[in-house]
Amino acid sequence: MQTATQKSQLYSLVVVFFFWGFIAASNGIFIPFCKSYFSLSQFQSQLIDLTFYGGYFIGSLLLFLYAKLSGADLLNRIGYKKGIVYGLLLSAFGALAIIPSVQMGSYASILASYFLLALGFSLQQTCAQPYVIALGSPETGATRLNLAGGVNSFGTTIGPLVVSYVLFGSVHASVSSTSLQAIIGLYIGVACLFVLMALFFGASALPNITNTETIEPGMGALQFPQLRLGMLAILLYVGVEVTIQSNLGALLQLPEFGGYQESQLAPFISLFWGSLLVGRWTGAIGMFNLTTTQKQAAHIAVPLVGFALVLGVNALNGSNVQTFLAYTIPVGLMALLAYLAGDNQQRGMYLFSAFGLVCMVIGLATTGQIAILSLISGGLACSVLWPCIFSLSIQGLGKHTSQGSAFLIMMILGGAIIPPLQGLLGDSPSIGIHLSYIVTIPCFGYLVYFAVRVKNVLTKQGVSMSTQSISH
Known about the structure:
Distance between the termini: 6 Å
CATH superfamily: MFS general substrate transporter like domains
Radius of gyration: 21 Å
Shape: globular
CATH architecture: Up-down Bundle
Strand content: under 5%
Oligomer: single chain
CATH topology: Growth Hormone, Chain: A
């Protein structure tokens, strides 16, 4: 259970999760801007994503190397709170560096600036994820991460609208209407927000959790099998989440999948990311002290409200949302699984991974609307997997927790591995973009295996998942 003080502290901390989602909205404008402004190929424009994921990997690797060389974990020394503050300031520096890079017309400098931005995000996430878990019982950490993830998804959902209004005075923004001064103004604003957030966290009442114990020679956090299993789980989870939507546009342009034009693809991508919001909001129900009847009602109302919000955002953007009404069925199935999972994070991990596996099989075996909605339902399946994997993987690590967190954040690299792999399969005449979704099967298959295996591992260490709760 959490104390009232811890709940208040948690609500302050989740502000940064909203901030990550909100800032990510600028990427949807910046990547196509760079492609047009610098006359780049599609692959070259995607180097921004590769740089960003690479920044997460390198940032986490640097933390690990520091611990190995110095014999002490840097975040254990400075504390999670200061780590978030320093990460925000580093991201502010990266955002400011983008401005002269754009003015000089140097795409290489932009990539270097984006790398600094990502290093800051890596430090923030490496601190914030275990910080959320530390603000209460470790057994209930996954639900707190679900709440934080739901706030992050809300930021991602409304971010594009807000950014479009700020830059263009309309949600119907186009790349051609994006001016150089608008992009410069955007990143000045982003840098200012980073600095303001750093000041907010520096002055907040959040405890500066530290651990002064030294790291003994040896494997460190890697000695724990739950972490090793979780690292691969995070890599495949991030990879499958990114690859489903990254290749969705090419799939939807096939005649048997509707033959949609590029201008018609955005609502489908929005529905995928909105699915994460719906699932995470539902997964966070246990955060609140509700009676059994209230919980049952919430498992019906919350996903419907979240889904209505996603439809509303798309309707505001001028999209025809009637074609998405059938998606109420998978949303309802997800809500049922969340209810069945109850307060057990391991059971939730198993049910949602299996749900994703079934959705991918249906998507591969069918075409048209059924296949499209099945593949997009992968977003519902992925919605609560990150907090479950993260919480299960770092349980029992003790003083190695921040090092283990760094390893898990490092595995975000999966977002730069799985999508290109699917792209190679999609380019093959003998496979094609539809069958290329076969890469999602082993991803979700391993996540099911992780759910089963990690339970046995933690039980052997004296932590019984049958009594673990994620609901408080």
